[in-house]
Design a protein that fits this description.
Strand 3 and strand 4 form a beta hairpin. 41% of the residues lie in helices and 13% in strands. It is α/β, with parallel strands linked by helices. The chain has a 10-stranded mixed beta sheet, sandwiched between helices. The N and C termini lie far apart (88 Å).
Amino acid sequence: MLPICLTAQIRVLEFGNGLSSFFLLPVVPPVKLSCPQFCARRTSAARRGGRDRLLCAALPLVYVTLACFVALAGRPLPSHASESKSNAASANSITKSVVVRETALATSSSFAETPACGCPSCLCRDGDQVWLVSSRGICCPDTDVNSLAVWRLDETCHWQQADVATLLAMGGNMPTDIWTHGNWTDSSQAFSLTTQVYRRVACCDNSRGPIRFIAYSWPSTRNGPALQDIRAKAQRPFTVSYLLARFVQRLPDNTPLCLIGFSFGARIACGATHLLAGGELCGRQLEGPVAHHAPLNMVLWGAAMDSCWLAPGQAMGQALAITDKMLSADNPCDRTLEHYRWLYGRHSCATALGYTGPWGLTADYAAKVCTTDICSRKHNTESYLYDDCVMAQTRSYALFEQRGVTATAAKKRLAGK
């Protein structure tokens, strides 16, 4: 009588041989072992513990799985697989249509926009002007300002193509807001965000005077892996700021101006203000007399710039010199700004202004700054745009309701703190 362990092995092998004749799989036939060989095999199996028993139990499952695979190999694809193929084809067609639409927006003279927020037309109030100025396709910051692409939103919700001269001629020195979007925003998204931000700022309130709302769109479409693209785009706002500052310099000096920027758009807004104050940015300075706008306000949403850049002597240290008031909406829960230091490398200790607030400000600079916090793990415009507290404070700056400096609820960042 054979031992139990050897009997089990022989049965498994016989079961395997039976299946191998069905699948035509090569299986080693049972081998007769002598007593010394069997004792050595049994001792080795005892050392390995239950590994052999687990293998013996798994072999039938392996053969059954192979049987199912062979049986289904020749069948046609199920319906859900064909649906996946059709969905992939439709996704490709949608992607192509988006690319075509983005190209068409840059060349078309007019296209429609959908009204929202309960207003009777796309313009929330009588007398308001909504413009979009685009520097996409412009590589050199020394390019003539008149080469910027310009569109205007009319009362019928259509974007009409215009030019810089028309924009400057209409409205004169009426209060002007210039909003700059963040990274990873294509041209079609820029048009959509322009109307959303304008409606949230204007708030369909006819008790306030008309404004000229200008969206400044810069080349920020994603191109390549995330970190690689962000590092490349982090340098672009310095040159874009110069072009924006030259555009603002064309406005009348007594034009009330408010610059609003999100993420890298905050870099552009602060960089342009720094240049307007006579500062130097990446070896460039404005030519001619420095423009002075009274009042000049700034609103920063989740600013993706170093926390110390607005301090005197830093990269944009002169921006607050000509600024009447500045609102910094910070997000200490932002998972993107939390890892801001990766822009410079893993060993960097840089922090984002939109994550910690401004650092190193002198007493006179800190008196101009008011900060507010939100808590959202996402780094997007909507987190600030649909926060009622942030928008209530943004309107006071964008609509120039308060001329004095609000000291209450302000977190002043003095030098050395």
